[in-house]
Structure formats: structure tokens, C-alpha cells
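Record filed here:
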Amino acid sequence: MIRKAHEMRLNDEVELKGGRGTIKIVNILEKDEVYGTGRLFAISIIPPGCSIGYHQHVGDFETYYFLKGKAKVVDNGKEDILGPGDSMVCYEGDWHGIENIGDEDLEYVAVILYTEQKKEEK
């Protein structure tokens, strides 16, 4: 399968998980294309000053790989600053949030995979 950039579904998520502003999601794969292993494989784009609110993952876990920009992340209550080449994982049961604290769009690959227990329920 080949999918050109203009063929990828774009979502605008407003105040995602209680965050600020509108986050753009570029869906690399759709949920029904990952064989029940997860629910997101996308590029997230957060404009300056915008954020995704602090939230918990239950039944899945999320990995970020940063491509561009400057992020303030909160990982289980611990704050850190991340940028291009950095990554973070929010495991099942963990909490996290992210904010763009830079002058340009924050862009990162986001992958949400189900835990074994969630896969067995499908």
C-alpha cells in the first residue's frame, strides 16, 4: 500500500484531553489498518502555546518520537523538556501531558498500542 501525503486523513482536535488550542493529527494508518494492535499511528502537530491535557492511559500505551519543536512534558507528575530526537513512553496506568513551549509548531510521531489484555478483549 502506498498513501500520498494528500491522501492521509487530517483531524483537528480542540482542547484535546482538556488541553489548550487545536491540535492537528495526520493519520499515517487508520485504526482498522493495524490489525487490532492499537488505535493511533500519526503525526501530531501542536501550535505554540497549545497543549494536550494531563491524562491516563488504560488498556493501551503511547510512545512519542519528537521531530520538531520544543515540548514541556509531564510524565507521572515529573516535568521535562524534550525536542527533536527525544522520545517518551506512557505505559498503561501512567499519566502524561504535553505542551508546546517553543516558537514553532511541535511535531512528533505518536503511536498508541493496546496492551495484551486489551487485545484479548477484542
User: Anything to note?
Assistant: The CA atoms of residues 38 and 113 lie 4 Å apart. The chain has one helix and ten strands.
